[in-house]
């Protein structure tokens, strides 16, 4: 049990450090997201966006956010795979499409029963 708690603690700590940055294919902008895919930063590298059609700019921003979210999700999968119990579809849980997604979210936030106790050791 102690080994499982240590693995869970290590996975939780590695999740805290996960972020991913994607750059648009044309280098117009970069987007950084956290482990949950929430946008943390958007940086424009040129002023070309000022003359772009709204639909074109929107497409570039959304595509770049999506690529950053995919990278963060992959890092999250890698961090969680060693500690996930058998029978849980990790991909579905990470993407929020399983009956375990609430449990996974609680784990990431450190809210599962015993997690506070585990960090006190």
From TrEMBL:
| Pfam families hit by this protein | YbaB_DNA_bd
Give one GO molecular function term: DNA binding
**SUPFAM superfamilies associated with the record:** YbaB-like
Q: Which residues form the signal peptide?
A: none
InterPro entries membership: YbaB-like_sf, YbaB/EbfC
Record protein name field:
YbaB/EbfC family nucleoid-associated protein
Instruction: Look up and give the organism this protein is from.
Output: Streptomyces cacaoi
């Amino acid at each position: 049990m102690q080994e499982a708690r240590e693995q869970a603690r290590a996975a939780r700590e590695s999740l805290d450090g996960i972020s991913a940055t994607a750059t648009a294919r044309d280098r117009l902008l970069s987007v950084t997201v956290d482990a949950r895919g929430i946008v943390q930063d958007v940086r424009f590298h040129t002023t070309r966006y000022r003359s772009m059609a709204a639909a074109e700019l929107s497409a570039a921003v959304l595509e770049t956010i999506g690529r950053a979210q995919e990278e963060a999700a992959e890092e999250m999968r890698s961090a969680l795979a060693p500690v996930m119990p058998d029978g849980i579809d990790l991909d579905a849980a990470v993407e929020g499409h399983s009956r375990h997604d609430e449990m996974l979210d609680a784990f990431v936030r450190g809210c599962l029963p015993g997690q506070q106790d585990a960090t006190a050791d």
